[in-house]
Specification:
By secondary structure, the chain is of the alpha/beta class. About 30% of the residues lie in helices and about 25% in strands. It is built from seven helices and 14 strands.
Amino acid sequence: MSEYLVIGIVQGEYGVKPIENFRRTSELLRNGIKEADVVILPEYSMIDPLAGLSPEELYDKAELIDDSNYLSLISDLAGKYGIPILVHFIEKTSARPKCKSSSVLVRPSGGFEWIYSKIHLFDAYGYRESDYFIPGDRLSKKILINGFHIRVAICFDIRFPELFRSYALQGTDLVLIHSGWVRGPLKEETLEFLGRSRAHENTYWVVIANRFGSNYTGRSMVLDPFGIKVYELGHGIRYGEYIIDRDRLSEARKTIPVLIKSRERWIIRLR
């Protein structure tokens, strides 16, 4: 079992054309990738519905996972660098004009695997994501890389601690979050304290890959299992890598045994 996992974090600015957005991601990786074991892209890195698209227009640009030109292009990147890429994907459904906001793992071998669809849609601060999407109804699949047990969440999900605790009780070491955190008063501070809270209360690593641009805050970050922000990409279009350390995970769970207490209480309640 590996003691380390190197996470590649893309913080890009994207528009409404998947091909152009792929090129932006490709350029960031070409100039930045070094030792990553897995790369995560931010929310809306395939298509940005907040860039003036109607639900019908977004639906027309969405794709099916098994028949996706966008994922095929990402697959070429994954194969080129020999690592999996976790993609935020606008998934076409039968519920026209609504799509699903999904996470897909693109493997270097060329395979695509659905991992998660966003459960908690962003109907807040005057936005109505539910006009564009139907919510997911399942927890994230487990991704196993270098012996690390990984789950996925998407942006607004971070405000719902029960989702993150359910991942913790399933033995998760790391949660990767696709994010398109919208700008606004104190929104940057809010993203950080929510990330720190989810990491600290569950004693696991949290990585947030966030959008940057006129509507988005940037400041992608890594929170350690004590809830300490140990890495941030700041403002701007950037790519960065960070080493996730298993020893830090063990230290936090030994020091703050909240998961043991939580499991005991669940067992009592189930009886």
